């Protein structure tokens, strides 16, 4: 029994490498810390991308947070202060638990929303890697699909498993960009609504001051021209 060409390609990708992508949104309170961890093996690759937004109406607009990542021995893989976005990749040098944290402990900090994505690629050595049926047949992207796919065309001998992994990476990047656009739109909308509210209340205050001043002037003028008679 022979597997269909597409099924063999997907089977090869599943056995050669495993890539995991997870997206999260958290609310980070003022002066709070949120930490997460991933258990990795040596030579596994991990990428964390994040950006901050603000759901609070009328906030000051400060979106900076602290981000750091610790390896199993307690050393820093990443340590950034006062950032609103980040994109960090690293390769695990030892087996163990890798912890990454978001801190919102700045003076005058307000509640923030943090959207972050975690990409992981499990390393598989060549000795553990099964034979690739597509590569054995010498089938390439151009030979199999007969399409012009410019981002992959530069690799003349790129096999279908590699192409599928490349497509997975590209889709993950598109998803990250969409999350970024959503977050920025929400932040800009909150800023615009906050500005409109402040302008509205300032105008009401100015109107009240003008009315009060007008009433005071009328009262003062009437009192100034008032004639007093002594009987």
Summarize this entry quickly.
The protein has 231 residues and is α+β, with helices and mostly antiparallel strands. The protein is built from five helices and eight strands; from the N terminus they run αββββββββαααα.
Protein described:
The protein has helices spanning 5-16, 133-136, 141-145, 150-153, 160-224, and strands at 18-28, 32-40, 45-53, 65-70, 76-83, 85-91, 96-104, 112-122. By secondary structure, it is α+β, with helices and mostly antiparallel strands. It has one domain (5-185): Sandwich (Jelly Rolls), CATH 2.60.120.680. Strand 4 (65-70) and strand 5 form a beta hairpin. The chain is elongated.
Task: Explain the layout of strands and helices.
Layout: H1 5-16, E1 18-28, E2 32-40, E3 45-53, E4 65-70, E5 76-83, E6 85-91, E7 96-104, E8 112-122, H2 133-136, H3 141-145, H4 150-153, H5 160-224
Antiparallel strand pairs: 1-8, 2-7, 3-6, 3-8, 4-5, 4-7
Helix pairs in contact: 1-5
Mean pLDDT: 75
CATH class: Mainly Beta
User: What is the level-2 CATH architecture name?
Assistant: Sandwich
**Order of strands across the biggest sheet?**
1-8-3-6
Which percent bin holds the helix content?
25-40%
Per CATH, the superfamily is GOLD domain
Low-confidence stretches: 1-18, 133-156
List keywords for this structure.
5 helices; elongated; four-stranded antiparallel β-sheet; disordered N terminus; Jelly Rolls; alpha+beta; 231 residues
């Amino acid at each position: 029994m022979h597997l269909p060409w597409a099924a063999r390609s997907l089977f090869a990708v599943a056995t050669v490498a495993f890539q995991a992508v997870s997206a999260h949104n958290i609310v980070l309170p003022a002066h709070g810390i949120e930490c997460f961890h991933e258990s990795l093996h040596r030579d596994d690759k991990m990428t964390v991308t994040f950006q901050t937004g603000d759901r609070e109406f009328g906030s000051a607009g400060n979106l900076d947070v602290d981000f750091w990542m610790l390896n199993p021995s307690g050393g820093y893989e990443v340590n950034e202060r006062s950032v609103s976005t980040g994109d960090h990749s690293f390769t695990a040098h030892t087996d163990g638990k890798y912890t990454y944290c978001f801190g919102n402990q700045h003076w005058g900090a307000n509640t923030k929303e943090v959207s972050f994505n975690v990409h992981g690629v499990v390393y598989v050595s060549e000795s553990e890697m099964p034979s690739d049926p597509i590569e054995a047949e010498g089938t390439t992207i151009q030979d199999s699909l007969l399409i012009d796919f410019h981002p992959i065309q530069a690799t003349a001998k790129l096999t279908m498993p590699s192409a599928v992994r490349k497509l997975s990476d590209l889709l993950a990047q598109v998803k990250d960009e969409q999350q970024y656009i959503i977050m920025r739109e929400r932040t800009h909308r909150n800023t615009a609504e906050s500005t409109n509210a402040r302008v509205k209340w300032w105008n009401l205050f100015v109107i009240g001051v003008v009315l009060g001043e007008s009433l005071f002037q009328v009262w003062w003028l009437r009192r100034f021209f008032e004639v007093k008679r002594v009987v």
